[in-house]
Amino acid sequence: MHVTPEQEAEIEAQRQETFSTRRSTSPGLEEILYQVIPVLDHGFIRVVDYMGDDSAVVQAARVSYGRGTKAVRGDAGLINYLLRHRHTTPFEMAEIKYHVKLPIFVARQWIRHRTASVNEYSARYSILDNEFYLPAAEDLAAQSTVNRQGRGETLTGDEAARVYELLRRDAEQSYADYQEMLNEDDGGEPLDPGRQGLARELARMNLSLNFYTQWYWKTDLHNLMHFLSLRADEHAQFEIRIYAEAMLETMKRWVPQTYDAFVNYRHGGAHLSSKGLAAVKRLIAGEDVSQAGSGMSKREWSELMEMLGREG
Amino acid sequence: MHVTPEQEAEIEAQRQETFSTRRSTSPGLEEILYQVIPVLDHGFIRVVDYMGDDSAVVQAARVSYGRGTKAVRGDAGLINYLLRHRHTTPFEMAEIKYHVKLPIFVARQWIRHRTASVNEYSARYSILDNEFYLPAAEDLAAQSTVNRQGRGETLTGDEAARVYELLRRDAEQSYADYQEMLNEDDGGEPLDPGRQGLARELARMNLSLNFYTQWYWKTDLHNLMHFLSLRADEHAQFEIRIYAEAMLETMKRWVPQTYDAFVNYRHGGAHLSSKGLAAVKRLIAGEDVSQAGSGMSKREWSELMEMLGREG
Amino acid sequence: MHVTPEQEAEIEAQRQETFSTRRSTSPGLEEILYQVIPVLDHGFIRVVDYMGDDSAVVQAARVSYGRGTKAVRGDAGLINYLLRHRHTTPFEMAEIKYHVKLPIFVARQWIRHRTASVNEYSARYSILDNEFYLPAAEDLAAQSTVNRQGRGETLTGDEAARVYELLRRDAEQSYADYQEMLNEDDGGEPLDPGRQGLARELARMNLSLNFYTQWYWKTDLHNLMHFLSLRADEHAQFEIRIYAEAMLETMKRWVPQTYDAFVNYRHGGAHLSSKGLAAVKRLIAGEDVSQAGSGMSKREWSELMEMLGREG
Amino acid sequence: MHVTPEQEAEIEAQRQETFSTRRSTSPGLEEILYQVIPVLDHGFIRVVDYMGDDSAVVQAARVSYGRGTKAVRGDAGLINYLLRHRHTTPFEMAEIKYHVKLPIFVARQWIRHRTASVNEYSARYSILDNEFYLPAAEDLAAQSTVNRQGRGETLTGDEAARVYELLRRDAEQSYADYQEMLNEDDGGEPLDPGRQGLARELARMNLSLNFYTQWYWKTDLHNLMHFLSLRADEHAQFEIRIYAEAMLETMKRWVPQTYDAFVNYRHGGAHLSSKGLAAVKRLIAGEDVSQAGSGMSKREWSELMEMLGREG
After folding, report:
1. CA of D49, closest CA in chain C: separation in Å?
2. ipTM
3. Is the CB of residue B20 less than 8 Å away from at least one CB of chain A?
4. Selecting from 3.40.50.11240, 3.40.50.2300, 3.30.1360.170, 3.40.50.2000, what CATH number does the domain B5-128+210-267 have?
5. Chain C residues near residue A143 by CB distance under 8 angstroms
6. CB C64 within 8 A of CB D121
7. What are the sequence ranges of the domains in chain A?
8. How much is the pLDDT for B24?
9. Any chain B CB within 8 A of the CB of A125?
């Protein structure tokens, strides 16, 4: 379950209220503000606040007195220019805040992005819910045999069934024992009035890394794009990538011009090394370039060939 | 002149537009949004955007699903608690953006606060205006004789007149020569069609540090309070303190509960060292404590006595 | 086991090598460089590199050309002054790097300090060892009845025994199943040649938060002191505080003058709110001040009385 | 003059002292440690401390117990891999500290890099020296007619002579008046015992932006590379680029393997947008691609043609 009916009602009540503001608004983002966007089996993202839109980037770049935007086309051109030439500071001028529910092992990867603000639900103070992540059948992958840090084929048959069985059993057991150690039932009542119950800050250590946590996470548009360029990338682990992909959709609603520029220059772009650039020039000139003659390692060469859509 | 009539008109036009939003708004801050608040002879601050209000702090601390606030009193109590116990992350969840016009030597102090986003008017790209700071008569201070990094009495008479004369003459000369080197008059026309004009990125070096620049500056509430605790402090140089004091007023409008807590715990609070705390305990117990017996240096002792409102 | 004999041998081999350098060295820290300092049942900290010592703070504050230090006494006085007046930037000029082995739930608190550099052992790439934290008998605490975020008395008797039993059993089970899902035995051989094995990046989610991880963690002296002031504090959870206390000892060896100043001004110091300062002044004047007359909340008043060593 | 004889003597004295350390050392960097590397007419950089070398990157990536390096070739391969795949955190594990003397207008660009530590010479506390930057004849450039943020041809003849005359005259005048306002001569004696002298924090505002300041500046290898990729770039203003180029040489001495990787992947590399990559693929396939058919703007197309060494 992604949210309880009570939480859903709280969210809906908040969506009903509107206010008058002199600030720039992003109509596309207002439409989905506060709404739960489900991710994985129990997780979600939802945008809970934002500041600025595409015009905030343009205004800051121009240090404007008024609205500061010109024709839509001129603004888009400026945004393209800024992104292409790595003038990143104007993109720091727009800000977005998410409420995210995610498995702890995903949270541990996510938190490595330090240029963001975070408030996480405290398991020192409160008791975590009995919700843990179990991969969907198609996401239950074998270890890759070519990449130590990646996945291979999907597991099937008995092996898949056994893995499910183990993941579910261990998570259920660890939660049941968490409750027993806390000496609290689901309603917060003591299981055994004669016991004191282990401190919450200690009992939580019994939970496994697939349990869900949640946090408020706030960052600016520049750092959001950096996060997305790494985490919506095919090399990212599936379980964080699917969050990044959902956030990419919210970015499209929020700042459509910056989104287009991002997709063109970053997300869909590619980087050439000095040796790679030399090889590309020779290929364009019609030369027959081989890995041996390129000065590049085999791995690097195959990465280049893949980027160019050629056979190595 | 703080802004030109054209700039004033742009600002007013922006103030006339209002939008509907689902986001939290701060009515006190909306009232003055975009308005110029004059500082020094030609400078200003104006709030150009914000995200969140006191409730954003409370929501993040509670990782709420809905509006997340309780009774006003409960919220204020939580904000007090968070600030008192240095739980600073919830204060990062509200954001504010200023447009600031300020002398370059003030900008050089200001920029040392790194946890903020900045877009400054570019003198590589554009030509700076002919506006420079001259202290008001009462702010023209002599070097302090007791504090190498501070001011003493106000200069008067011939010495004051002479200082004014020098500051004005040199600034005017440097601007006239800046224009001559650029080979541009006030209207952007060449002064001499036969000359090329020095590159802007070079010509600017002839301007003195009292010329005005401007920037968009954005930070979160936690880092704003850190800035204000250092810069609205009596040890800060007057020319930056007066900006900080104007910002303190905008903070009061924006987040009144956090403002009250800030004034009580930080701005009006005091720090005791281990030795200072020991001395205070003895003083409360009615003992007669002297500097010699306190283990503190003379300077430290006199700082403590000043904090306690006692003669050293 | 804190380290294996092979790791111990690697460390010893590294300790045997010395080099000649023109850089400042800290003799006290060189003595213990690379050595394992055990923390908790399997964890440790060890200092693996550093840059600068007390003199780096002094040199930077003076922007010196040469060694830049004066008499030892003058340096200590400057360091005291800088720390007392929150001139924090010179303390950023010395740097220290630790190798830390710690339970995952401790790592999750630790990582919230963002102004540091971190490289963590990757469980996407490698397989974690079978080592998990079990509290010592005296650290197995009940939930506090007065502080939702704290510990009460130590559990004893049957309840303690049962908690141990559950923590150990669940951790052992989760590791056994981790290995089964990976399809690897302790030597890295397949348990069952007919199975593919679950991807490492997925299997790790079955481990509980008391399993040990490790990382390289690097920060500067200013941010180290901030970390220590929060984590070597009595409000910090015991399992992170004991790491902070071990680090405090390394700081004492590294920068003895800064350490003394830190203990006096920060670690052993106290903060007074505006209302708290007013109350202290009245107490020193011999007035009878009560909570009701202080303008402070009950909780705040009792915190002040505790700081002053008085009964509330 | 880059340094005074007294400063030179202090530096030499410090270079004579050597210490024994267990830390990794960089022999190439030790050779030039503390030495002044002149930049511009009075400026310099000098490396005053460092932590780690190439092996620090490798150790952190491997979370090693001992020295952690393998064959030189294996280490270089790992460093190449890390840089190519944007695994940037291991590069944060090595640190370098510079003492830099630079014109204030250059310092204002430099300080925009926020992920560094800085201690600047204080003109509130001390008096600046009478040293200002005058461009060499070949660096006195006209405003570019094609790029609003750039330089065109070198000025010559009467115009060059006039610019020199103005820059020199105004700087000399502003310094003379700075001294008069301070009421101090070169030896620190009052010019007129009957005057108080203007506060230093005010008098400094009369100096122009070409006066030299100096600071200690410390950053890690990752952020150094980011700084160098932007500031040793041809789009950077000459006066900061020449500092970056001097620093690039120190980087080569310090971490030769990382330097090689940096030159190949970043400094000499290039970025392709999604549309640019599509155009490259078509060019390699022998198609005749034009700007109109590429979906790229004219400016973007000409940038791509320049990168590929083709006529637009």
Report:
1. 6
2. 0.95
3. yes
4. 3.30.1360.170
5. 182, 196-200
6. no
7. 5-128+210-267, 137-206, 274-307
8. 96
9. no
